[in-house]
Write a structure and sequence with these properties.
By secondary structure, this protein is an alpha+beta fold. It is built from 26 helices and 30 strands.
Length: about 900
């Protein structure tokens, strides 16, 4: 799954949360709560080179710490010693089996008006080990009509508490007996009183009717499901646990104008006399109940073939021509991952579908991935977002091996699903776009975790979680993927892939825990890898390293000193860290040394003919850690010019900027022409903008850089100069082939230098649907309010969503205050109230509308219109009381 939290990495890990931080420029400190948890035996403080424990060693005095470069905003405070507990610490075990669910057959129809699901479920099961005369299923919010043995009329007795259905079988069955029950029911997901959700998955209704009454002409009628974590039992009875597996059949009766999608293969489609149609879907390979899915609606379906299986792209009809671009490189990814894993894609088809109002980012339902509408764009929009879509497609596809084929046995082990899926994004970047793109992505993943775990966080395998939804965080995703990447370096490329292939083949179609992954690696490599699992999977935190180098001219010896300084509850005092070190001479010639950190303080000596120009510790940049590195400006500049990785150049540029070194001038100019767009974009933020030579390069970037990120940034800078000589360069950003971000930047820049030149262009662009263009126009029109633009604002307000809503609503509010038209303002206020009170509207729209009301209140206060301001405050109070989302409630308290 790509959760809402993960979505912020695209975009999207909680993107809403991140943008809200920016909206307020402050936030309450958020840090993971750590519960006491059962821990694996820790490793001693010192290790030999073959990773066997020997006696630990105390560190020496570290009172003098030099001023260094590093993650300066991350502060890890020491935790008090844990108090002794009089009870067992919290522990969330895997589900205990009372029976084995073998097969699920569902026959479903839908009442759109009532938002009900009318169902017949035939469940086939066996007692697990012990004889049983009753069986209990998860079934949330049902009306139960009858329970019988399949094919029999006599009713069975049952107990039902609106969450669990316990059926009394009337006799005792053993593990050799196969039992079939027929349950007739009506599921009412919208009528549940205990609907929950989290930052990652915003609702757990399980099944969703979208625009059920058809009242919203801008939105299609749809039905879709979201099962993770345990929400599919809101629409069919099952054993709703991740370590359950069964095969399935699905009969879906819908109006004939609708298409249906489910897991497996469409075996039959039969038209009925009443104008409906029944589609029969069959999945003959076992998978977890939370991966069951259905989708109903009017879709365009574009088809490919890969190795004899259907590959499908389901989109809204107006995006049919863009479908393959929306889901880029799908067949190439299937081929790449299948070969890399030495395990061909294991399922009978691969479908991808986009739905409206999805409650998370994307979900890896077996053979039928659901995506939120944020990835559904036309080709020109995708020029700005192609990497987002590529990574999400890769993420959900890789789940079909890690998550669907082998499935976490408990939510505490969630990283066995999500860590692998995050790792696949790095793999794809590396394969398709090269080492720099992969390094850029890895840095973002590492930083996403590090900034969320300033106090050490919790173990990656987290048995003490308070709620299973907590597991969808930057540990399970970011840290999990980074940990796998480190493991790849520890065991080597060939052994890594051989181990994963062995793991998949041994555990296919079963549930797994972290130790089974370890044992697969040990079986292949012959190594004892408990040390790695204990510190990275079962331990909390990450290393914090202070790094410095010394040179002894008399002995021709370079010394690398690395002190581990990490603190935090449950964080290892000493990590066992293998590390590659690159030693450069002045000519740029490099030799690589392998070291291992096994103590709190570590010192390594290297004989060299001359003083090294650079000792580059952690040369592969794969280690998940915080580093405070004491290099001179000359060494950082040397690193930029000679070290091979993206992260080397990024860190060097970053360090020179923070040091305010004179060397930054030349290095930042080099960075403007770097081969990788991320470095070029960063350089634009640090380079001397008054230097004529730099300006010439910036102008060239603005005119023709192939990547939108640096080109847009360069255009925006030229606009700030106010110099009309740049108008020709900026006008090149107005052509119809450029990405919308470039077009928006060009419009904004020209509005500052030569506003008359874009007046006609702005009018021509008013029918564009691109959020980037809409936001830019709203900013232009807010600067010089004209009542003639009021209708345009109203029209766009109906559609603005996701991140664009923040800027658009803010510009609309500014436009109205500048317009000073009470009728228009009152109308807008009423509309903002409707949006804020509408719990079916997105979080983005609800927040943006409420923020606009707060800004309007502040405007009235500044004007001295106290009564009007009080009215706004009353409305905001009503919104707070009715809001159901905990994140929005948190921020509304700041208004």
């Amino acid at each position: 799954m790509i959760s809402a939290i993960k979505n912020c990495n695209f975009k999207i890990a909680n993107l809403l949360f991140a943008v809200l931080l920016l909206a307020f420029s402050c936030s309450p400190k958020q840090s993971p709560n750590i519960s006491e948890t059962p821990t694996r035996p820790g490793e001693p403080g010192k290790w030999s080179e073959i990773s066997k424990p020997i006696t630990g060693e105390e560190p020496s005095d570290t009172s003098e710490i030099p001023e260094v470069y590093g993650f300066e905003d991350i502060v890890i405070e020491p935790e008090p010693a844990a108090a002794h507990l009089d009870t067992l610490p919290p522990y969330n075990p895997s589900h205990t089996f009372e029976y084995d669910l073998i097969h699920t057959k569902l026959d479903l129809s839908f009442d759109w008006e009532k938002k009900w699901v009318n169902g017949k479920a035939t469940l086939t099961f066996r007692p697990w080990f012990y004889p049983a005369d009753q069986v209990t299923f998860d079934a949330k919010g049902f009306d139960i009509q009858s329970v019988t043995f399949d094919g029999q009329a006599a009713p069975l007795k049952y107990d039902y508490d609106n969450l669990k259905l316990t059926v009394h079988l009337g006799k005792t069955f053993t593990k050799k007996d196969e039992v079939k029950l027929m349950i007739k029911y009506t599921a009412k997901p919208d009528e549940r009183t205990d609907i929950g959700g989290s930052a990652a998955i915003t609702s757990d209704k399980g099944l969703y009717f979208i625009n059920a009454d058809g009242a919203d002409i801008s939105k299609p009628k749809q039905i879709w499901t979201q099962g993770e974590t345990e929400a599919n039992s809101c629409w069919f009875p099952t054993n709703d646990k991740p370590n359950e597996r069964c095969t399935q059949e699905m009969y879906l009766t819908v109006a004939d104008n609708f298409k249906t999608l489910s897991n497996g293969i469409l075996k039959e489609s039969k038209k009925n006399a009443d104008g409906t149609r029944t589609d029969y879907w069959k999945m003959d390979k076992p998978h977890a109940p939370y991966l069951f899915m259905i989708a109903v609606g009017e879709f365009a379906v574009v088809k490919d073939k890969w190795n004899g299986i259907d590959v499908e792209y389901w989109v809204e009809p107006k995006f049919e021509a863009d479908a393959r671009d929306i889901f880029p490189y799908t067949t190439e990814m299937l081929d790449f991952f299948s070969k890399k894993l030495n395990y061909p894609y294991p399922w009978p088809k691969f479908s991808q579908i986009i739905v409206r109002d999805f409650v998370s980012g994307a979900m890896e339902n077996t053979t039928a991935v659901i995506f939120g509408e944020f990835i559904q764009m036309h080709k020109r929009d995708l020029l700005d977002a192609h990497m987002t879509n590529e990574k999400i497609v890769a993420h959900e596809m890789f789940h079909h091996w890690f998550g669907d084929l082998v499935t976490t046995e408990s939510w505490a082990n969630l990283t066995l699903n999500e860590g692998f899926a995050n790792f696949s994004e790095l793999l794809w970047c590396e394969h398709k776009h090269g080492a720099d793109e992969a390094g850029y992505h890895l840095m973002q993943e590492q930083q996403g975790y590090l900034f969320s775990a300033a106090d050490g966080g919790h173990p990656l395998i987290h048995f003490a979680h308070r709620d299973r939804e907590e597991m969808f965080d930057s540990h399970s995703y970011n840290k999990g993927g980074c940990t796998l990447n480190m493991l790849r370096e520890v065991v080597g490329e060939e052994a890594f892939w051989a181990s994963l292939s062995a793991y998949l083949k041994k555990h296919e179609f079963t549930d797994v825990e972290a130790d089974e992954l370890r044992m697969a690696f040990e079986d292949v490599t012959g190594q004892d890898l408990s040390w790695f699992w204990n510190q990275w999977f079962f331990g909390a935190g990450h290393p914090v390293l202070d790094v410095k180098t010394e040179w002894d001219e008399a002995t021709k010896t370079a010394t690398l000193k690395i002190n581990q300084t990490q603190k935090g509850k449950n964080v290892a005092h000493v990590f066992n860290i293998p590390m590659a070190v690159d030693i450069y001479d002045a000519s740029g010639k490099v030799r690589r040394e392998q070291i291992r950190l096994t103590k709190r303080e570590n010192s390594f000596q290297f004989k060299c003919e001359t003083r090294p120009a650079l000792i580059n510790e952690d040369a592969t940049k794969n280690l998940l850690c915080i580093k405070n590195v004491e290099h001179s400006a000359v060494e950082w500049a040397f690193m930029f010019d000679h070290a091979p990785l993206f992260r080397d150049r990024w860190d060097a540029l970053d360090a020179l900027e923070k040091m305010e070194s004179p060397l930054l001038a030349d290095i930042s100019r080099e960075a403007l022409t770097d081969k990788f767009y991320g470095i070029r974009a960063k350089a634009l933020g640090v380079v001397d903008h008054k230097n004529a030579q730099n300006l010439a390069i910036i102008e060239k970037i603005a005119e023709s850089d192939p990547e939108p990120e640096p080109r847009s940034a360069a255009i925006e800078f030229l606009g700030e100069t106010g110099d009309k000589k740049y108008v020709p360069a900026l006008q090149k950003g107005l052509v119809r082939t450029v990405p919308y971000s470039v077009l928006g930047a060009a419009l904004g820049a020209l509005s500052k230098i030569d506003p008359a030149s874009i007046a006609a262009m702005a009018i021509e662009l008013e029918n564009e649907e691109s959020p980037a263009v809409v936001v830019t126009l709203s900013e232009l029109y807010a600067e010089k309010p004209d009542v003639a633009k009021l209708a345009w604002f109203k029209k766009q307000e109906e559609k603005m969503d996701e991140m664009a809503a923040f800027s658009f609503f803010a510009n609309y509010q500014k436009f109205l205050t500048g317009l000073n038209d009470s009728t228009a303002t009152n109308s807008a206020i009423e509309n903002w109230k409707m949006i804020a009170f509408n719990m079916s509207a997105s979080q983005w729209r609800r927040f943006s509308a409420t923020k606009s009301l707060a800004d309007m209140r502040n405007f009235y206060r500044e004007k001295g219109e106290i009564t009007r301001a009080a009215e706004m405050q009353t409305i905001i109070g009503e919104i707070k009381s009715k809001e159901t989302d905990p994140t929005l409630k948190l921020y509304y308290d700041m208004f």
